[in-house]
């Protein structure tokens, strides 16, 4: 079978793409820090370029941007410190009466349905007292024991935590040269089309990132204000943490909700207080899913609110948690590709009915 030059070229590109996909699949376990570093470099390189344009030495600009980023990440984690410092002593003091109340309420209620339950409240109290009274040496020995059982996982986490900042530093330092080398790999005949497509994708992803930052800021203000209105003591740290953590879909919201419900149970000691906090988080989730993300992110990247919801559900179904993370950025790139394909089709001889 004789193939035309265009067909041979198409098959060559398909073979190269398949080989690249296979290589990525085989190297997936070691690529995580490099992929994370590349994503962070893409997000942070505009700040480095602005500093470099103001005659700041590039090494200094990279160090400033990376250190500030790490400090912001550390500050987000430290928002949990006042929560833990406040709640652990309350937890230790209030769990025994909570267990007594649970035993006095749950057992009679279940007895109405013929279910006899006898909670060993004394043993539960003794076990919880041992856990909460454990000193740092006990926690350290437990952690080391867990590390021996799953040492490869622990080493992987430590390795990634060290590698990601290193990879990020070198990518930011060499970003202009790397971009230029990547552009030179594109065949000259395809360079204008490919670079135009990538520029449009870059603009679209920039709109996505700006929209996501606005969503995070609005939610941080909402959760802090709404929890303060509910007379919640930890309104500010938990509100800001939840608002910023929504950048990680579902996980950030779930962690904020769990901490808030635990703190509400300890502070109010009643179902009404817990329900008030749960209502704040429920309204916040609805606000994020059906108003803020579709309007502030979806419209910026050219997707309707319905398309945003569908993209999150579809990518989550196909790729799990990672799919939810990349759903909107990938949809932004897909929207650019589909728009260009549509324009090509409308200008084609097939659409115009020409032979």
From TrEMBL:
Main location: membrane
Domain of life: Bacteria
Keyword Cell membrane: no
Transmembrane segments: 12-44, 56-81, 149-173, 213-232, 238-261, 268-287, 307-338
InterPro entries tied to this protein: AI-2E-like (IPR002549)
Membrane-topology descriptor: Multi-pass membrane protein
Record key words, sorted: Membrane, Transmembrane, Transmembrane helix
Pfam family, one: AI-2E_transport
Cell location: Membrane
Homology family: Belongs to the autoinducer-2 exporter (AI-2E) (TC 2.A.86) family.
PANTHER family, per database record: AI-2 TRANSPORT PROTEIN TQSA, TRANSMEMBRANE PROTEIN
Protein name, entry field: AI-2E family transporter
């Amino acid at each position: 079978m004789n193939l035309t030059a265009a067909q041979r070229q198409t098959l060559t590109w398909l073979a190269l793409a398949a080989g690249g996909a296979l290589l990525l699949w085989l190297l997936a376990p070691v690529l995580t820090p490099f992929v994370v570093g590349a994503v962070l470099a893409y997000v942070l390189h505009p700040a480095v370029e602005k500093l470099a344009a103001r005659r700041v030495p590039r090494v200094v600009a990279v160090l400033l941007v990376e250190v500030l980023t790490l400090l912001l990440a550390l500050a987000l984690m430290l928002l949990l410190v006042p929560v833990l410092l406040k709640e652990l002593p309350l937890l230790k003091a209030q769990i025994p009466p909570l267990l007594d109340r649970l035993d006095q309420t749950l057992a009679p209620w279940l007895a109405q349905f013929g279910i006899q339950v006898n909670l060993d409240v004394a043993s539960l109290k003794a076990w919880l007292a041992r856990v909460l009274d454990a000193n740092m040496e006990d926690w350290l020995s437990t952690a080391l024991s867990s590390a021996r059982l799953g040492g490869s996982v622990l080493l992987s986490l430590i390795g990634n935590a060290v590698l990601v900042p290193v990879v990020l530093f070198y990518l930011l330092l060499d970003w202009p040269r790397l971009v230029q080398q990547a552009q030179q790999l594109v065949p000259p005949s395809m360079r204008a089309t490919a670079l135009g497509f990538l520029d449009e994708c870059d603009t679209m992803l920039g709109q996505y990132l700006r929209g996501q930052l606005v969503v995070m800021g609005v939610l941080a203000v909402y959760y802090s204000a709404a929890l303060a209105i509910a007379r919640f003591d930890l309104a500010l740290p938990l509100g800001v943490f939840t608002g910023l953590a929504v950048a990680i879909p579902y996980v950030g919201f779930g962690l904020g909700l769990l901490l808030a419900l635990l703190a509400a149970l300890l502070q109010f000691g009643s179902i009404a207080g817990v329900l008030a906090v749960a209502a704040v988080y429920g309204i916040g989730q609805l606000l994020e899913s059906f108003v803020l993300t579709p309007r502030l992110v979806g419209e910026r990247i050219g997707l309707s609110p319905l398309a945003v919801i569908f993209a999150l559900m579809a990518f989550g179904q196909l790729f799990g948690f990672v799919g939810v993370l990349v759903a909107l950025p990938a949809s932004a790139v897909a929207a650019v590709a589909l728009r260009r394909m549509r324009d090509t089709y409308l200008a084609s001889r097939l659409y115009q009915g020409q032979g």
